[in-house]
Amino acid sequence: MNDKEFDLTMLENADNETIKQIAENCPASDEEMERMFAMSRKIYNERTRESNNKDNIEVSGVEQYRKPVWQKFTAVAAALVLTGGVVAGGMYFMKNKNNFNTNDPVPVVTDPATSPSTQPASPVEEGCPFGDISNDKVRVTYAAISPGVVDVKQDFVKQLAENFNKGKWTELSDAPQFMGEYSTIFIYNNGNPYQVDCCLYNTENDKGAYIKFNDGKDLKYYKGDEFVVKAVQGLYSYDFDMNEVIKLDESDYDDLIHKVWADQKTQANTEEVTLPDVKNMKDELAKAHLKDMGLNVEIVKSADITVNPGYVIKSEPDAGTKLAAGSTVKIYVSTDDTSEAANTDNNTASAVNTENSELIAKAQNFYEEAIKADCKFGRSAPQYFNIDTMNCFSTAEGRTLSYVYDITLEELRAQYHETFSDRYAENDATIDKWYSVNDGKLCWLTGNPGVDLYLESAKVTEVQRQTDEEIFFTVERHYSDFRHVDIDGSFEPYTETDDFSVVIQPDGSWKVGKFHNPQPN
Amino acid sequence: MTHEEYKKASDRSKEEAQRIVFKEYFNYVYTIVFSRLRSCASREDIEECVGDVFADVYIHYDNSKAVGEDISGFIGTVARNKAADMYRKLTRKRFTFVSVDDEDVPEQEAPENTEADYEKKELRTSLMNCISLLGEPDSTIIMQKYFFMRSSQEIADKVSLTPEAVRMRCSRALKKLREKLTAMNISL
């Protein structure tokens, strides 16, 4: 059960003693109490038929309930003082990518709405009101990883931007009532960052998406159409690895909008370069060429009878990869047997070790791809398939489902098995768990299984054995309080191992064999 | 508040007297009503029900029925009855309407005379103890989020924290609470 599923239903309809205990936490605000008092007076008057009483009141004209000294704005200011600054500080709007004032204090962030009661202040606008972010750096945070953030991959940013740009936006004159959880994205904007809060709402009369950001003068609220909804839905289900989380400190709340991008300062003026293909180049030439491009080079000697000694076998990362200047590139250089002048066993052992480490490195990449692929069909499916989560429904068994369009169950399964071998029956578990046919329609199990806050890493550590058709590896999952969530400090780090295998296809490619997804899926 | 105190206040201003009663019993009434209706009613319905309860309480005071007696028992009964009526209305089940003016109105507290109810009460007590052991503001945050279903913003206003800090504290407090519940073999 994740945080969102936790509920205190057990306390419903409790005995008097428990009720009195719960009542100590009664959350109604002064405004709500005043409203209910006015309601009680109105009903009382109607029942007693008082018509010319001096206390006869309309709801709107009720005498103000005596507010305590603690006023709402004062409390917000107090919150600012007590917490050392507001998380939401420095939300910036950049329609034309201009500089704007970063000194304005920003009110506390509000949460997604359930009942919009505001009327639009202005006509519908086309085009994203905070600008086109398709080429920008974006980071996202959620409650589960806060105050940590995750880099949003560029292709996903483009998807987000496409939907934001296509969407129709209506500015709201009043802040809508935000309730529940929401996503926050941080836009780098060439060193003038800003923050946008996004949420979905669904009421009896309306559903859509709300966006909130600061345009440098005021906090602005917008309502977005189905394109904006799609963008926000994608954000909700954005898939990432826990070791991608950029950890921030609670003190970073003081100036989160800038602290989020603190690591970018050193790269502010760095240009990106595309790694050229240096295969079969003489090692010294390749090294000089890469250095000229501003890259650092590490040479790894490797046995490869297909490449002349002293020439490059391959680079890591692969040619075509975009890198920031100053990044390190490994080039694998074929060994010169005569110049090495080591004994044959050492050479062989060294070659085997190198081969194994290359195999493990390849398996690690493949393992990470397997995790992503498994999540793609499971928890992150709305990001990749046409799933209508806005109209999810509950079944008699208590499951919440959403309809899946444009694909059949068989097609989904076939796609899944493009990555996952059908050699292992358990490789059908993800599809079987997340998809079902309800009244003849394909459905997806709606919900977020949460994240494991203690999973620090999952690494392929060794080759166990190899056959003609399959290679078996060991994966070590390491758990620790690296996110500092354990207040008691009693969490003891530990490691568990899994078996992971790849099934070698006739064409030499790999499919996932034995696999356990370390993330909840 | 006794009837005598109410009468004295009412002589000055009926609204003033009603406001005193409202303020004194609001938390109790709201919690009873919310507890009954949280699974099926909107906030507006719940607020209407609370208003309805207090309207009856004011009338009860007017009718001098509260002389010398502890009004809280009566208020609790009215609140439970009203909440039950609204629950039935919202869930569209047919039951006999019980008027709160009926002197024979039965106590509508959760029955406590069966073994199952006793076990439930024990569980609730244990759960409340575990929550209170979290300390402030975590226990408030947990109750307001997971029982009263309030947003992080609303909770933040109450406990003088930012919504982000509320979410973080909530996540940590929930983890601690789960550990305590597991240790006590309680599952929700």
From TrEMBL, chain A:
Signal peptide: none annotated. InterPro entries: PASTA_dom (IPR005543). This is PASTA domain-containing protein. Keywords: Membrane, Transmembrane, Transmembrane helix. The chain crosses the membrane at residues 73-94. Residues 269-335 form the PASTA domain. The lineage of its organism: Bacteria, Bacillati, Bacillota, Clostridia, Eubacteriales. PROSITE patterns: PASTA. It comes from Ruminococcus flavefaciens. Gene3D superfamilies: 3.30.10.20. The keyword Transmembrane applies.
UniProtKB/TrEMBL annotation, chain B:
Gene3D superfamilies: 1.10.1740.10, Winged helix-like DNA-binding domain superfamily/Winged helix DNA-binding domain (1.10.10.10). The keyword Transcription regulation applies. Residues 22-92 form the RNA polymerase sigma-70 region domain. One of its GO terms (biological process) is DNA-templated transcription initiation. GO terms for molecular function: DNA binding; sigma factor activity. The keyword Transcription regulation applies. Pfam families: Sigma70_r2, Sigma70_r4_2. InterPro entries: RNA_pol_sigma-70-like, RNA_pol_sigma-70_dom, RNA_pol_sigma70_r2, RNA_pol_sigma70_r4_t2, RNA_pol_sigma_r2, RNA_pol_sigma_r3/r4-like, WH-like_DNA-bd_sf. Residues 126-177 form the RNA polymerase sigma factor 70 region 4 type domain. Belongs to the sigma-70 factor family. ECF subfamily. NCBIfam families: sigma70-ECF (TIGR02937). PANTHER family: RNA POLYMERASE ECF-TYPE SIGMA FACTO, RNA POLYMERASE SIGMA FACTOR HI_1459-RELATED. This is RNA polymerase sigma-70 factor, ECF subfamily. The lineage of its organism: Bacteria, Bacillati, Bacillota, Clostridia, Eubacteriales.
